[in-house]
Design a protein that fits this description.
mainly alpha; globular; 7 helices; N-utilizing Substance Protein B Homolog, Chain A; single chain
Length: 137
């Protein structure tokens, strides 16, 4: 199982949904040349992530808004928003199997790969602030 790949697929599927698309994990894997890298456990994780992000989007977006100074949710690049939502969901609701540091590091790597030139710094800054809040609310 590759949690990294599952996280990447979850982010891509969330991004696709923000653009009005309806994709499947298999289609996303094919487009991203990740075919054969997800097992049943990975697919379950992707589904849980997407369902969780959708169910908690208001709470997650509130945290993003709190720490994205002068940037409303509507102004944040969709790929960055997808990365942030997936990572914050993991930080808040998958604590038992995803360390906060791992969620942040993986999100920063996704931002480097898929985001704009400074996306990784933006993502890291917001997630770092969220992590501080989680540790000492």
């Amino acid at each position: 199982m590759s949690r990294t790949t599952a996280r990447e697929v979850a982010m891509m599927m969330h991004f696709s949904s923000l653009l009005g698309g309806e994709d499947t994990p298999e289609n996303v894997c094919e487009k991203a040349e990740l075919v054969g890298l997800l097992d049943k456990e990975d697919l379950l994780y992707v589904t849980q992530m997407l369902d969780g992000v959708l169910a908690r989007s208001n709470e997650i977006d509130e945290l993003i808004s709190r720490y994205s100074k002068d940037w409303s949710i509507d102004r944040i690049a969709r790929v960055d928003l997808s990365i942030l939502r997936v990572a914050i969901y993991e930080m808040l609701y998958r604590k038992e199997d995803v360390p906060t540091g791992a969620a942040i590091n993986e999100a920063v790597e996704l931002a480097k790969r898929y985001g704009g030139e400074r996306s990784y710094a933006f993502v890291n800054g917001i997630l770092g602030s969220v992590a501080k809040e989680i540790v000492s609310p």
